[in-house]
Amino acid sequence: MIPKEILDKVRRIEITTSHLVSDIFAGAYHSVFKGRGMEFDEVREYQMGDDIRSIDWNVTARTGTAHVKKYVEERELTVMILVDASASTHFGSTKELKNALAAELAAVLAFSAIRNNDKVGLIIFTDRIELFIPPRKGKRHVLRVIREVLYFKPQGKGTDINAALEYLTKVMRRKSVAFVISDFFGEDFKKSMGISNKYHDVIAITLNDPREAALPDCGLVEIEDAETGRKMLVDTGSPQVRRRYKADALARLDGRNRLFRSMGVDHIDVHTHEPYAKALIGFFYARHKRR
Predict the structure, then answer these.
(1) 121 in a structural domain
(2) Do 11 and 55 sit in the same domain of this protein?
(3) Computed over its alpha carbons, how large is the radius of gyration of the chain?
(4) pLDDT score at 284
(5) Nearby residues of 265 by Cβ (< 8 Å), 6 or more positions away
(6) Residues 102 and 202 in one domain
(7) Which H helix or E strand runs over 38?
(8) How many domains does the chain have?
(9) Domain check: are 65 and 161 in the same one?
(10) Is residue 173 included in any domain, yes or no?
């Protein structure tokens, strides 16, 4: 039995994200993610302004009147949303946890997809594959996806991005648009992501929190790694410690971004203390401009 507060949260996310999709994202999504090509629709009489290259000469000769072939975009896509549910995503130092942010992002992407009559599937992973929901269409299906991202109780605590990407390639034989939502704390995933990106259009959405980039001055603090349980005392009152922590964080982020660029994988940085809409709009605009 799903708790009422979870159902209420799903409803709130549906209302919030549906507004964003209607006003902003549905059109941008359609313009960026194209179908597999064009398919024949009908033959109709030539009208002023039609491209003469589309004239159907056989029909024109038979009827004595110019006719053109009309094509429509073969629109249907499959969108796979891969959500990291490891222990490190159950963290947030501001108004929102990373896993709650992931749920809203999944909702925006899923609603944008079904608005364009595309299929949506879900993979939840930690250091193992926790849940797979095959791609389907429809609002009820999308609400289930959101509910699972919010309510699912994972067995693992660690992160295995390689396993998630290998599973994606295994279960999805046809090309899909694959959004990987994670903080990308984990092992080297270059090889598996590079392979997945050959078969799918992989887009990384990175979850970030300001405390991961800079330490506040709070004196002596015990810090615990959420995934391994390892604890250590850190003197946050030391300017040298804070500078080293910030430098290490910047180096990690820079290395991650360079890795994505080297594989040709688009990535979107979102933060727990900032509205995610701006980052998504920037991504859609940049990709549309590039194409």
Answers:
(1) yes
(2) no
(3) 23
(4) 85
(5) 193, 197, 202, 203, 204
(6) yes
(7) strand 37-45
(8) 2
(9) no
(10) yes
Same domain, 54 and 131: no
Query: Does the pTM exceed 0.70?
Result: yes
Question: Distance between the two ends of the chain, CA-based, in angstroms?
Answer: 46
Q: Which two tokens stand for residue 212?
A: 């991961």
DSSP string, 179-239: EEEE---SS--HHHHHHHHHHSEEEEEEEE-GGGT-----SEEEEE-TTT--EEEEETT-H
pLDDT digits (tens, 9 = 90+) for 90-137: 998 888 899 999 999 999 999 888 888 889 999 999 999 999 999 999
Q: Are residues 224 and 276 in the same domain?
A: yes
Fill in the amino acid letter for 140. R
Rounded Cα distance between 106 and 211, Å, is: 23
Residue 75 in this model has a pLDDT that exceeds 60: no
Q: In the structure encoding, which two tokens stand for residue 63, read together? A: 């009827």
Q: Are residues 60 and 83 in the same domain?
A: no
Beta pairing, strands 177-182 & 201-208: parallel
Rounded to whole angstroms, how far apart are CA atoms 113 and 93?
31
| Residue 70: pLDDT over 80 | no
CA–CA separation, 288 and 223 (whole Å):
42
Task: Report the amino acid identity of residue 153.
Answer: K
* pLDDT given for residue 97 in this prediction: 92
d(C-alpha 185, C-alpha 208), whole Å: 11
Residue 30 lies in a domain: no
- Domain presence at residue 196: yes
Cα gap 262→244, rounded to integer Å: 27
| Residue of 43, 25, 190 lying closest to 105 (CA atoms) | 25
